[in-house]
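pls read this protein:
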Amino acid sequence: MKEQAVAGTVRRLTRKRVVVGVVAVLVLGGGSAVAATRPWHSTGSNATTQLAKAQRTTIVQTVSASGTIAAAKQAGLDFAVSGRVTHIKVKVGDVVRKGDTLATVGTQSLVAQRAAAEATVNADEQRVAEDTPGSAQQAADQAALVAARSSLTSARNAVVDAALTATINGTVTAVNLSVGQQVNGGGTGVLGQTGGSSSSQVSIQSTSTFVVSATVDDTQISDVKKGQDVAVTPEGAVTTVAGKVTSVSKVPSSSSGVVSFPITVSVDGHPKDVYAGSSATLSITTNKAVDVLAIPTLAITYSGSSASVEVKSG
């Protein structure tokens, strides 16, 4: 009796033709549906029919890649002024904050230059005040005063630059200085996303913000776009951390005949147990369909390029 009741139900099924892709998904406006599935090995009137309820779900298409975790920021710092190193206040491994003093050079000659520049400005201001208003001499003295004030600003900055300070929060990774060493000025804090110069006098890298440098196969790179969500799994980790694609290179690289494209992924927030230098696997979400109605693949009947399913009516 039960088999006969099921057969009767099948005879009352209404066939609805829908377009399906490589996955068995029906995108409907709402409500619920029941799909009739038939085992592929059953034929004839004795074929059994099962009813399978369609379910709302999320379909995600991903591209896999692997890469190396790096600090999101690294600063390579050099003294902007010349002088002899008087103090080194940090060592490799020290944690510093932006603005902390890392090392200093002697300021005696710099202070003397500042005093001389101040005296020049005072003298030029006095001459301008004594000149006949609107005269050629006043114009010339005014130009000299402007130049003297610029020199004073530079002299004052030089005294400040006698202290090498941190430009980011992070950990000191290199100190290429010694007390008594003569350094040449002209350096600036070089801030990079993935690394600074190894020859910098002091190098710092962030320890709480990270990026992943990876490559994607040439057959999949067309699916990868800036801003896509990424699940990052560091080597040895059992949980993933979230990230986003921040850059996709248009210039390919080739190794052993395999062409790939470099990408960069930023890791969200300040995750724990993530370390620069370790490897990671990436799962990049390239396409996503939310709240779709999914049915078993066995419920689909194909006829040429068309596909249909039977839905129970009533």
